[in-house]
Amino acid sequence: MSHRGVYNGSVRKLVLAFDVGTTYSGISYCFMDPGQQPSVKGVTKYPAQEHIMGASKIPTIIYYDQAGKVRAVGAEAVREGIEEEAADQDWVKAEWFKLHLRSKNANDTRDITSQIPPLPPRKSIVDVWADFLTYLYRCARTYIEETQVNGISVFAFLCQQDQIDFVLSHPNGWEGKEQELMRNAAVKAGLIKNSAQGHEKLSFVTEGEASLHFAIENGVLTETKDGDGIVIIDAGGGTIDISSYKNDISKSKRTFEEIAAPQCHLYGSVFVTMHASGYLESFLTESDFLDDLEHIVKCFDRTTKIRFRSSDEPQYIKFGSTRDNDAACSIRFGQMKLEGTQVEEFFKPSAMCIIKAVVAQKKLIHGQIRHVVLVGGFAASDWLFHKIRSELAKFSLNVMRPENHVSKAVSDGAISFYLDHYVRTRIARFTYGSFGNIEYDPSNKDHFKRRHKKTVFPSGISVLPNHFTIILPKDTQVSETQEFREEYYEEYANASRFRETRSEVWGYRGNLDNPQWRDQDPCLSSTLLIECALLISSSANYKLLCTIQADLSRLPFETHGKGKNRVYRVHLALVLLFGLTEMQALVAWTDRVRNL
């Protein structure tokens, strides 16, 4: 259980956490009152769900009209009669849109683009995401105003004083690019201002780390021992997030160390539905009920998939009336009968993905793992839980599932992340570095074979371009406050050239232990070997993560040489901090000037 202290701030604050899931989304919040211990609460009533007390999530669905205006969101988008209304008025549905935000990552080996419903016409993913964030914010505000004493005036005051912070969660595989798009959506939704101060009001947390905080908050890890390794599996609608930590209770405050690079796999519960849809489409090829495929799949998704427990019993999809029959397709009285073993095949890819990933992490960190915690909406599947537990028991792993509200793990855990920060060290998921010049050394065989590319600095030094300097190697354990630097200099024959510098941070995802050159990795296409700034293909092993610009016009510079041979130089450093869930990068310089 959480043992956090009282809030030591001087002003009242509100923290809102939005978990935008592939299929369902939720909201958690926390009031931070000076001198009081903060606690995590959840929004449990939404529009069109007023009759369902304790409803913690809403469908991640938006309907737009032909003018691009939002017409129905969340539970409103699945109410009775909505499909008929949408068809009559030619509305367009946006669902599973979260998957459009993803970039291909190291664990993502499948192209699922054709299987994801397209975005509405003339809508970008930022537009749709912003519309959904706007709706979640409105739901949170309404709920707090209705349930909090003097809720309307309290919320209005917090808005006026700009004392509302936001936490957005995302899959483990998402990085700077996705975070930037999410930040743009938060600005477009009006949650934060588009300024440095406004950006500070928004935090990001991976779904895996949020789920760890949820497990701690709910006492799931109370019996774990000092040094025990723990795998958190967040099984959601779109992704399976795998995160591994080591328990450290030897200090005054309990902390956790990340002990393996987090993973993200596209095997969430929507892929069970996709497998079922593919099978049913083939199965009904000769049946008149093929025209009802979409409706049958929806019925499977809402009932059969949720109830499935054992392959030993037949499963039924109830989709029609007693008049609907087709003996050849096992349809009687509006129900389709499927063998349990067939339904199991829809689930198996997800289960095997989880089992293989956990076993691989156990082997990678030499058996430190003792416990596995399964959370997320997909964790509610009894078949999935029992399958994982029985298979991982063979590796002496104890699999647990929180008793209540596993679907709220991410949003509740995101608030706990904001308050508690239990994870103090994290693992670099790939190698970070930058491309630049290196002084030419003809005795170095790698240099010599690239001699045709060398250029000469104004000072007469010969250099080779496109050399990759490693700032942080893959799988390095990094603390929250640890800095990593790469020092370099810029040199010109004319001091007026010092106006601005651009530094780029790149991530290397290939198999080389010590990548050094852009043209070294065989996975890179020759068409991508032209200029560093043009290499933005997500299929390449080098990926541009961010660009930092700095004004050099007022910096002190040093001089070298005299007369026509005089050159001017500024010494800089690219500084990276990796210990938080969002990478931070900046350019530093030295005030120490030497004139030689």
Automatic annotation (TrEMBL):
Identify the Gene3D superfamilies for this entry.
Answer: 3.30.420.40
Please give the CDD domains that the UniProt record associates with this protein: ASKHA_NBD_HSP70
| Protein name stated in the entry | Heat shock 70 kDa protein 12A
